[in-house]
Amino acid sequence: MHRFIILRINDFGVENLTRRAVRLRVLDLSDSSLITDKSVTSVLRNCLHLEHIAFSRCYAIAPITYASLKQLRHLNSLDIFGVVDQRGLEKLNSLLGSSISLNQQRFSYVARPTYGVRRTAIWGLRTRP
Prior knowledge:
The protein is of the alpha/beta class. The chain has helices spanning 11-20, 37-46, 86-96; strands spanning 3-5, 26-28, 52-54, 77-79, 101-102, 121-122, 125-126. The chain has a single domain (3-126), classed as Leucine-rich repeat, LRR (right-handed beta-alpha superhelix) (Alpha-Beta Horseshoe). The termini are far apart. The model has no long low-confidence stretch (mean pLDDT 85). InterPro entries: LRR_dom_sf.
């Protein structure tokens, strides 16, 4: 397995996932509001081949924790949209160095529904007759 995307996961789930899928190259944990710094530690310990990781809108992770991802030798991109402001991005960019690009993939692998006015449509398609 080289790419994994999951929603609604907690730190225990990330620990189990990373121990079993050590060859992951892409991991998208965006919008996982239940994960904390412990999940970043699990990733660091178990997923040494990661090239891209996304923690966009993972608000329970302290922004400075992302600097530790520099330890992943193969990591070349990190998406953390909605987590830090521009000043924070600049600081994190200086801590990570030039080998890791921040917020380069504007579109997530995770589909997020958009609702119509009466919540009878999703992505512009009617859901109720």
